[in-house]
Amino acid sequence: MLFAVPVYNEEKGLPKLLEHIKPFLEDPNNRMIIVDDGSLDNSDKIIREFIDTLPEGRVFHIRHEKNVGLSGALISAFKLSLENEKDYFPLITIDGDGQLCIDNIMEYVSKFNENRLDFMLVSRDFSKYPFFKRIGNYILSFIAGFLLGKKIHDIESGLRILSKRAVNVVIKRLAGSKYSIASEMVYIVNRYGLNFECSGKNKIIFYRSRTTIIDFFRNLYFGVYQYFRYKDAD
């Protein structure tokens, strides 16, 4: 397995998240790519200290000098995952703020492998989310489901599992910025015929969001853009 963790000013939640991931990294067959996307707090120091507690080579650390947003951070992680001489797939994306519970991650990975999936979108339990955030996510998910002909439960979830094939397809076609990668990935993998499944109702440890109404419309625009872009597929 290969974890991809984007980080931007996450000194509060990052230590606990890394401790939860650490047992997986003690397995020599697993790796993590952590992208510090221009953090201005102690995130970089926390990452470096964590890396020192593990055998050499278990963590690939990318440092952006300037913040380029979630899309840019995950693109860097995806590129590195494909450039690595050893195949550590499937790749699991996890938000660096620590709000996502990963206690059941092996359950999702097992299902991913058993069903020979290319992409799994793991939905969140929204019980700790405010009403307006739930409505925004529902609208984006509903529109995606309507256009793609597939029930989408949580299009903005940061917990996703991708095959090497999915990463190859997605990285060649991403067009947006900031948080738009969340919507774009779902449209791309579906429109290009990859084996895709929504699963779970994953526990949220705490609520925190940095997205705004502008991000809502950005995600909607680039998702729909990818839907109509399919006709130009090569």
CATH domain class name: Alpha Beta
Distance between the termini: 30 Å
One letter per element, helices H and strands E, the order comes to EHEHEHEHEHEHHEH
Domain tally:
1
Binned, the helix content reads: 40-55%
Number of helical runs?
Answer: 8
Uncertain spans, ≥5 residues at pLDDT below 50?
Answer: none
SSE blueprint and pairings:
Blueprint: E1 2-7, H1 14-25, E2 31-37, H2 43-51, E3 59-64, H3 69-83, E4 91-93, H4 105-114, E5 119-124, H5 131-148, E6 160-162, H6 164-171, H7 181-191, E7 196-202, H8 213-229
Parallel strand pairs: 1-2, 1-4, 2-3, 5-7
Antiparallel strand pairs: 4-6, 5-6
Helix pairs in contact: 3-6, 5-8, 7-8
Summarize the structure.
With 234 residues, this protein is α/β, with parallel strands linked by helices.
Key descriptive features of the protein:
234 residues, alpha/beta, Spore Coat Polysaccharide Biosynthesis Protein SpsA, Chain A, 7-stranded mixed β-sheet, 7 strands, globular
Description:
The chain is of the alpha/beta class and 234 residues long. The chain has one domain: Alpha-Beta Complex (Spore Coat Polysaccharide Biosynthesis Protein SpsA, Chain A), CATH 3.90.550. Helices cover 43% and strands 16% of the residues. The protein has helices at residues 14-25, 43-51, 69-83, 105-114, 131-148, 164-171, 181-191, 213-229; strands at 2-7, 31-37, 59-64, 91-93, 119-124, 160-162, 196-202. Strands 3-2-1-4-6-5-7 form a seven-stranded mixed β-sheet, sandwiched between helices. Helix 5 runs parallel beside helix 8 (213-229) and helix 7 (181-191) runs parallel beside helix 8. The longest helix has 18 residues, at 131-148.
